[in-house]
Structures are given as structure tokens and as C-alpha cells.
Amino acid sequence: MVTLIRTNYHLLPVINRFGIRLGFKDKTIEEICDQHKISSDFFLAIVNTFHNEDYFPEEELLSFSPHLIVRYLKRTHQYYINYILPKMESLLEQLNNDCSPNCKELKIIDAFYKRYKDELLNHINDEETRVFPYVVELINNPRSMDPNFTITEFEKEHSNVEIQLEDLKNLIIKYIEPVYDENICNEFLITLFRFEADIKDHARIEDAILVPLAIAIEDKYRG
Fold this sequence. Notes:
Elements: H1 2-7, H2 12-16, H3 29-35, H4 40-51, H5 58-62, H6 66-97, H7 104-140, H8 151-157, H9 161-175, H10 182-222
């Protein structure tokens, strides 16, 4: 496990989402996973997906329990809500406070960020209150599925929060006036880049794994 962290320390928050924290001693990944009652195959599939953007073991991930995937996705949401969003808000507030009163571009960026945050939270709430419970119920009681709701219909309405994150980054890189604290701005932008990469991998797991699993169950029991 130590080698994994030394190879890519950006994996630390992904590893934490499994309930695993530092203090590994010389234990292997398999030993740590056993200790936390985690499937080491599932752990490695997720970690490798984040480590290498060209690696996506779709067939292997489709073989895991949807319960495992839903649990992991919910923990990722909590990481965004409890850590990433407050961190970005704090950096943006520092950036605004350290700028002169006429930093109108920063005010535009701040307003854009707040709209993005609201949309992201709505997106997460939709998944937590509609999609994940629907998928769990589908697995537990497939014969009693709601005839008026399908995962495909939900996907059609699903907003794409990754595109707005790209727009926010471009707004900063292209249009911010050079009267800001460069260290705080760099930290904010780096956080955005890392968050964008994380949320793209998160969306890949939802769109390429969870949704096809749900569709397969729907097709099997709806005939």
C-alpha cells in the first residue's frame, strides 16, 4: 500500500473513500482490504481507474455488486460536499478579499461558481434521493420496480456538471485581470483541475457501470 501512495499521492482521497486511512505499516493492499472487509479486486479496479485515465475495466466493474458501486459513489459525494466545495469557497473568498474593490471579473467568477455549486448539489441530491434508492430497490426487489420510471429516462434529464466546470476554468484562465493574489488563484485553479479529473472519473463509473447494470435488470424483468 505504501508503494501505491508513493507512486501517486493524488490517490489518497480515493483510498479514504473506502474508509482506509494512513498507518499502513508494511501491509499489502490485500491485507489492508481484508482488514477493512473490502473486495481487493473492486478496490484495485477503482484505484487504477483514477490512476490511469486510459484504464477503465468496464467488464470487470460490471461484475461487481451494484451495492458496492452505490456505496462508493455516495462516499464520493460526501467528499465533494464536505471537503472540496468548502475548500473552493474558502479560496474564492480569500481571492476576493485580497483583490481591490474593482475586481469585477472576480465577482463574475464568484457568481458563476455559486450557480455551478447549486447545480452540482441539485445533481447530487437527485442521485441520492432518486437514482441510488431506485437502483438498490431494483436489485433487492426487481419484480416490484416502478413502472413509471426507468434509469434511461433519468439519464436523458441528467445535467452535465463537467461541462460547467470546464467553463469556470476557462473563465479564470482567459479573463481574470492580473490584479489578484497569484498564489491563492493558482491554488484555486489547481483545485478545480483536480476536481474536474475526479468528477469525470466519478461520472464514468455512473454512466458506464451503474446505469448499464440497472438497464440490464430492467430489461430482464420488464421482458
